Every structure is written in C-alpha cells, then in structure tokens.
Amino acid sequence: MEAAREAGRGAAPWRAMSAEELEKQYSPSRWAVRRGPEETLKTYSEIGIAATARARAARRSLLGVPYGAAAAEALDVYLPEAAAEDATLDQMVDQVARSIVFLQERFPSNQGMYLCGHSAGAHLAAMMLPVDWTEWPVTPNLKAFFLVSGVYDLEPLVHTSVNAPLRLTPEDARRNSPQRLLEAAAAQPGGPAGPVLVIVGQHDSPEFRRQAREFCQTLCRGGWRASLEEVPDVDHFEILWKLAEQDDVLTQIILKTIFPEF
C-alpha cells in the first residue's frame, strides 16, 4: 500500500516542473489578476490592518491573552455583543492545538468553535484534523473547518523560496502535511466531525487548485463531511479581502454553515 502510494506521488505534476515554474506555482502574488505582485502584497497588508481595527472597535475583546509561556503564544478573543516569532513549524502546529484547548477550557460552555484559515493559516487549521483530541485534557467543541487557499502537502515547498524562512527538511514536510497524515490514518480521529470546506479561488495557481482537490478527495475517502468550493473570479488574495463583504459568495457560504437559518 505504502509503495503504491509513493509511486503515485512520483507522478505528481510538480515533480516534472522546472525550478522556475515550481517557484511560480507557489508564489500566490504572481497569480493576482488585477494588481501586480508588489501592489497585491501591499493591499493585502493594508486590508488586514484595517479589518482588525474595525473588529476591535466593533466588539468587546480580550487582546493578547496568553495560552503559553512564549511571547508569541497569545491570542485575541472577540466576544459577542453584551506575527509569528522564530518558531519551527512543529511548534506552530502545537501552538494552534494548545490555543484551541485553552479556549475550550476557558469557555467550556461555548456553542461551538469554527476554524478558518487562509493560505498558511489553512494549512495550520488542516493540521488539527488528524489530531486525536482524546489525548488532550479536553475535547474542543469544533463544529466546522473553513480551509481557504491552503497547501496540504508541503513537500513541493521544500524546493522553493517559500522554504527559506521555514527551513523545512523533507521529513519536516512529511510530518506536517495533513494530506499525508490523513492518507496514512486508519480511520478518522475520534470526536465531533463537522463539515470541512476546502476552498480555493478560480485564479489560484494550478498547484493550489490541485492540492485543494486532492485534499478534499482524501477527506471524503476518510469519512469526513468534506466539500470543495471554487470561488469564481478571485485570486489568492481577493478571496480573503472579500470576506469583509457580507454579500460575498464565500462570506455567505461560511455564514450559512455556522447559522443554517441565516
């Protein structure tokens, strides 16, 4: 079984690409359709800063709540109306898991947690799918996952400039690839199994779209309630920007998943 799986991986499209083409496939700003790469990244940062400011102004919040000892191990909690420090990817994955457990312990009567991540954030959220929460102090009340324009098999990234700050070895990549972990899992981990929406933009690169499609297929084979959503006429960055618009296609999908009566 493992030999056959590895043989299949040998035929993965990215393996036949030149270094230049592989670099392009995993550089989302080079696929922006309405702005140049530099303007896209600048706009991406500006929109994120502005949206955070609006969220803090509109909601009561607990900012910088520590869930661990490291300086970066803090989260912002936005209550209802009434950048990463130097860390390995293994540490980042552990930090996400510990922050989720912290929230469940801090708010044990919560009505549900919904994980949503974009790009690298989608990968970190997806890494929570193989977690066996029975091995943790509490089982978080996870209701759904929204994985937006993520990478789920990290091996191709090892061969691109994306890996410069991460310094992943091939083994690091395999250990932190939810695609591989779920393929190898005998069964879906125990605990609540809400829907998993694997989301990608029409103008994401072919490699991002391939990874989304194959990850969704792997989830379905493993018994997860997974679906693939391709959002029309958006690139890797616009798909996130538009979440600030209530009538956006993806915004509506997410709201109707959380609030079926919406």
TrEMBL record:
Keywords: Hydrolase. InterPro entries: AB_hydrolase_fold, GDXG_lipolytic_enzyme. One of its GO terms (molecular function) is arylformamidase activity. The keyword DNA damage does not apply. PANTHER family: AB HYDROLASE SUPERFAMILY PROTEIN C4A8.06C, KYNURENINE FORMAMIDASE. This is Arylformamidase.
